[in-house]
Amino acid sequence: KFLFAYRVSKSYRPGSADTRAAWAAWFEQLGAHVVDIGKPVFERTALGNSPADTVLGGYSLITADDLDAAVALASGCPGLQDGGAVEVGELGALN
Fold first, then answer.
1. CB of 74 within 8 A of CB of 1?
2. In 12-33, which positions are buried (b, 16+ CB within 10 angstroms) versus exposed (e)?
3. Which H/E stretch holds residue 5?
4. Which residue from 10, 26, 60, 93 has the highest number of Cβ atoms inside 10 Å of its Cβ?
5. In this structure, what are the phi and psi dihedrals at residue 8, rounded to the nearest 5 degrees?
């Protein structure tokens, strides 16, 4: 399983019809890879070092065979077209 942490520009506002349609189409394209579609983030604060030009926008849990496959899935994220980013991290079990 992989965590997609969405980073959006500070001026980004979720909720427009075009934005919702783009995200819905992307999640539909991901199909069975989606474990948890996640939620958008509306209020936030950060501790420590955080990229200055983006803020946390939301998350999703995805399945993929490996990190490269997860990155390939993330490359279609609509937020990338708006100056955002997707952090992709493999989730592991603590032994």
1. no
2. beeeeeebeebbeebbeebeeb
3. strand 2-9
4. 60
5. -125, 160
